[in-house]
Here is the input.
Amino acid sequence: MDFLNALILLSNFVIVPSITYGSQLALGAIGVTLIYGVLRFANFAYGDLMAFGTMCVILFTWLLKSWGVNLGIFPTALLALPFGIALTIILSLFFDKTVFEYYRNKKSSPVTFIVVSLGIMFVLNAVVRIVIGPNDIVFMDGSRFIISAVDFKEATGLLEGLTIKSTQVITIITTSLTCFLLFNFLNKTKTGKSMRAYSNNEDLALLSGIDPNKIILITWIIVSILATIAGTLYGLDKSFKPFTYFNNLLPIFAATIVGGIGNPLGAFYGGFVIAFSEIALTYAYKKFIFYLLPFSSDSTNLIQYISTDYKFAISFAILVVVLIFKPQGIFKGKVI
Amino acid sequence: MNNIDAKTSFTIMGFLLLIVGILQSWGVAFSILNLCLISAIMSMGVNIQWGFAGLINFGVMGFLAIGGLATVLISVPPVVESWSAGGLGILISLIFLIFIIYTCLFINKRFSNYKYKYHLIFAIIILTIPALKLISGPSVKLIESINPAAQGYLGGLGLPIIFSWFVGGLLSAAIAFVIGKICLGLRSDYLAISTLLISGIIVSIIKHEEWLSRGVKNVIGLKRPAPYEVDLQNSEWFINFIELIHFWAPTTKGIIISSSGLFVKLCFTIIFLITLLILLYLSERAVNSPWGRMMRAIRDNETAAKAMGKNIVKQQLNIFMIGSAIIGFAGAMLVTYDGLFTPSSYQPLRYTFLIWVMVLLGGSGNNYGAILGGFVVWFIWIESAPIALLLINIFTFFLENNNAFKMHLIESVPYFRYLMMGVGLLLVMRYKPEGLLPEKKIKF
Here is the structure.
């Protein structure tokens, strides 16, 4: 019984939140890694692209709500998602045409691309804050819980309750679906294969008649879809604040590099590695150990590896470790 | 636009500041000028790394925070109760930490062929964190419980604050050595990401180790290298001095108070200007020396420089440390000028990317360009809000004042600075990628 209690405790505070957070990071990291693989630069504007997409979704959610449209127990944002995605795609393509294309034709160095993406980062930062403001926005509606702690305790008779929020389930289902479609697209369809070929060896791909413009167009579309979905899921689960989205860029970068930059599957796992270590290392295990130990201890210490303040720092530290041991990432991305 | 030289551009900058002085107030003009000077030193530091050596350092924020920490550690008087309560524990953990670092270095050197060397070092580091917490935990708790509203930390050495600028530089150089050892072998975009993330670690340590820096509780009331306004207002010579300057009308209390504020800012301006000129002189000398030519050779063609027998790794580490030292120096100056240390204010957008915009806009590879960039960008950063307000009012003149759209725009005026920075950076990168004052090409 105690073992079950400990297990439930752990899944409530570590496993379920990590899977949720990991899914959000994974979607973001796949986007970064695709840009890196096909367009060959690290996009620093990605966090703000996520913020832009989420902002569009929120605006459409408000519009739908004002018309009295909703999805019942599901959040209205899911209905607004396609519109947000469409706007984000338009924005990405606009920046690609006006900014990135010029440098691509000039074959500029990766550093130039980074600097240019910084410029776009500033612009998007401003646009999001001007349109929707810098404050916290909660746009979650519908039912909040699928299983609440009280119900769980009553149903099972255990001491510990398991809470599963509906946003967590939505996140996990949406991520699985998106990744399933994406990896199928990359591995099974002709366009997906040509995208991977282009990422692998540009010259060879061009020689075999692959149209680079089409590949780049599709990449931006996929990246915008991923950014909007990841941003919306994160916003539903927590809340929307432009500054947090900018900061989320850092763990996403960490996940990308840990998984091997340019490797979508690696980025997917990288997201979960980062999320699990962030949450598992900052969780206080006192109660968990209390259930497992045969005797009771009155230790007042929190049994915690490192304080919650260092949550972000953990992902950065993992990155440093990976850089020293395996610069190409755990899942062999491009060797840089 | 094509051939502006340094003199013209700095004259234009001076006129802009004059206009601000006349239209807004001289106090605003001088605070902009002071922060322009500090920004210029920051961008000189980045320029040394990027412009002269081609190293992309996105960890500016971390080095600025270290400089700020140095001001606290040097200038604040020591908190005696905290030292007696927990000082011993902290010292023991410090010795323990040094011991661990040396053990790791020893293992690294002695067992250089051992297969599981890195795994061993990794395991030691993993075990160190809880051990360190166990050793220092009780002392940290004691220190943080002593007068938490005003102190709750160890304090500093109580030395004059100017020292802290140099200590800030040295500390930054030391940290840069460690970071450089880890990251400098990486390719450019990897280096950018990893320095950005490491600066995140540095800031989060400074933010959360309250026994060291008071963390998010901030340190206020730092010393100044300039006189205080209140002292000036009560001193005989200052009042006489103001009466002498202000001869056309009787001197009132209000004039004394406003001019004392101005006088303090002027003192800072003089100190900062002297610092900037010394750094500029040293940097110009270094750049035009054989060493500077070697650095540019390494930047432009690493393989060729290697073939000439230059130790690239060592030289890049050197210049990374020098640049970071200047950034740390500027970070200490900034905190000195503000008079307070707020670790939570260190955000990458303001303290890393804005400095980068300065360098890129001003002209990388040219010291004058970096300084001009610092001036221009900081000026726009501050003055963009009034300018945006003016533009909004002009373009929406047909809307009524209580129009929701217009009111929303006016509310979001502070964010137009990001827009201006972004658009400015994109335009410069497109049409003048070498910056306003490009690097001088030396012809032989």
